[in-house]
Amino acid sequence: RVQVICKRQTACSVGGSHEMALVPSQQWMASLDQCFQPDEPVLFQEFIEHDGVVIKVYVADDTICISSRPSFQNKADTLVSFDSQKLPKAFGEQQEHVVSDSDVQQQKERLVDHRRLRGIADRLRRELGLTFFGFDVLLASGSAAYYVVDVNYFPSFAELPNFQEVFVNVIQRYLAQ
C-alpha cells in the first residue's frame, strides 16, 4: 500500500495552488474528483512516512535557518483534502490527521544533521542559481534517509529573526562584486 500526495501543477502564486490531497491507497484514486477538476493537471508525489514532522530550511545566500513544523501522521484511512497553507504552524495546535505532540518534534529534531542540510542547501543554491529560497525535508521514519519534497523561491523567512539585516548584507555583497 503506497500513499501519495496529489497536488496541482500550478505555481505558488495561483489561487488553489496549496490545495492538496493525501491519498491513502489506490482504491481512493477515484475520489480525487472531490478535490480536483477531471481535466486538471495534477502531480503525484509518494507520501514519505516521516512521523509528522517536516524540517523547514530557509536559505539566504550562505546563511541558513532550520526549523520544524507539524505534518501528517504516517497513516491515513481515508482521502484527506487540505490546504497546506492552513496546516498548523506550531506543535500543540490540534488538527485532524496532523501530529501535534511536541515530544515527537523534539525527538525528530535531535536526528537533524545540520551539516547535511547545509550541504543540500549549497547544492540547491548552485544547481538552481537561487540566492533566497527555502526547502522542506522529510526524515523518513526508521531510517537516515532525507527527502527534499519542496523548494520555494523567496519564502516568508519568518523563522529567520534578523532576516532584514541578512537580506541587506547579501544585496550589498552582490552589489560590491
Fold and architecture overview:
This protein is of the alpha+beta class and 177 residues long. Helices cover 21% and strands 29% of the residues. It is built from 3 helices and 8 strands. It has helices at residues 102-110, 114-128, 163-176; strands at residues 4-8, 19-23, 42-46, 53-60, 63-70, 80-83, 132-139, 146-153. The chain has a 4-stranded antiparallel sheet, with no helix packed on it. Strand 4 and strand 5 form a beta hairpin. The longest helix has 15 residues, at 114-128. It is globular. The N and C termini lie far apart (53 Å). The mean pLDDT is 90.
Stretches where pLDDT is under 50 for at least 5 consecutive residues are: none
Q: Report the span from N to C terminus.
A: 53 Å
Largest sheet: 4 strands, antiparallel
**Structural class by secondary-structure content:** alpha+beta
What is the number of beta strands? Answer: 8
Give the percentage of residues in beta strands. Answer: 25-35%
- In N-to-C order, the SSE pattern is EEEEEEHHEEH
Tally of DSSP helical segments: 3
Range of helix content: 10-25%
Average pLDDT works out at 90
**Main sheet strand line-up:** 3-1-2-6
Please state the CA-atom Rg, rounded to the nearest Å: 17 Å
Overall geometry comes to globular
Outline the fold blueprint:
Layout: E1 4-8, E2 19-23, E3 42-46, E4 53-60, E5 63-70, E6 80-83, H1 102-110, H2 114-128, E7 132-139, E8 146-153, H3 163-176
Antiparallel strand pairs: 1-2, 1-3, 2-6, 4-5, 4-7, 7-8
